[in-house]
Design a protein that fits this description.
Ribosomal_uS17_bact/chlr, mainly beta, 79 residues, rRNA-binding, OB fold (Dihydrolipoamide Acetyltransferase, E2P)
Amino acid sequence: MPKRILQGVVVSDKNDKTVVVKVERRFTHPVMKKVVRMSKKYKAHDENNVHKVGDTVLIQESAPISKDKRWVVVAQDQA
């Protein structure tokens, strides 16, 4: 099964080798028929501490790295 890749914005880089990435998704509400924005935060592994707050990054699923870290930063998005 392929690994998921998500795009998000780094909201915290205070931890060593870890960044917190906020991923936002948009969908139409089933009853209200209005576009709703929901976001979720993921802890992602950043081996060299190169990503800073505000960077747009791509994260990919991986095997568990720590108690709550299951994603790895793949690349910085150029958009």
